[in-house]
Design a protein that fits this description.
Length: 414
Amino acid sequence: MFKPLIFFIGLRYTRAKRRTQFISFITLISVIGIALGVTVLITVLSVINGYQTELRERILGMTSHATLTGRYGQLDDWQTVEPRLGNYPHVLGTAPFIDGQVMLNAGRRVSGTLLSGILPDVEPKVSDIAGKMTEGKLSDLIPGEYNILLGNELANYLGVVLGDKITVISPQLNSTPAGVLPRMRRFTLVGTFHVGMYEYDRNLAIIHLDDAAKLFRLDQAVSGLRIKLDDIFNAPLITRSMANQFYDYRVSDWTSAHSNFFKALQIEKRVMFLITLLIVAVAAFNIVSTLIMVVTDKRGDIAILKTQGLTSGSIMGIFMVLGTIIGSFGTLLGITGGVLLALNVETIVPAIERTFGVKFMSAEVYYISEIPSQLIWTDVYAIAGAAFVLTLLATIYPAWQAAKVNPAEVLRYE
């Protein structure tokens, strides 16, 4: 016998005899329950990871990885700072910008929005706005012609199409013989873009940097410099190092600008993990009833093993091995099913939609109409570990009951 005695006996008890078919059926139910729970847990976390990645890419497609601004919200010497910043390690690209809050007026519609001034030829170095255009193109922003790009939701709200005039009302004031009036400028709509984030599609307008400087009276100054980094996840460390060198300026990264949003997503992931883990817990503790029935059925065997010298600890080990084998088999099945499902969600869901003629996430309601999935192996390892621990805990009480069996009382009636 090449296997340890305890493991061998525990493995032997997994085989069903004719009179224990019902116990074997309950064991099968426990295995299936654990497998389904692990499969669901892996799939749910993979879908959440997919949404996080999709949202992060959409947000970072419009905003910069990092931003350098002046101490008072204005960068006067950006032409001098930009070459230094471009040579800094981990920096892939930089671009100046001017941001300001304005009111847009078209006909009877008025909307407050963020107006961003950019340089069309260098903006693609730090954002994906050029690839988000649905009408027109970024190069249509020509200095001095006062052209403007709107998010498609904002354009729909204002009821404007290409070629329409839009009045931009700035909070900057003009002193006139009629009194103090806000600065206003007529712009021509030359394009629209669609990001897939309401924050940008409804509340963002883009003009040329020179036009923005005239509108906000900044002369040669800008609001700051957008920075693209080679590692977005290392952005906080890079910006802290950058702030030490550019100590006269303010340096921030995307994690601080959208920290609450991504913290909420992370909390949601943890809560979903705990909720879904309850499915695995329920299935794992089905092992308790299975092992109790096995202990009742094997009382005679336990008594004989004890009379032959097996200790109570060894008896506990036998039934813990039995429960662990059941749980491990269910966990392995669940991992296999969960990984296969998570890797093919984007294929399976459309197939179900076509088969039954339904749409789980309508494009008319949701910006992300496809269900994304991203399998992260550390999540799989955590799920496998949690399922194994729950399985192991479920074996303790039945194994303890088996160890308490008194051989004299059992064998008296044999």
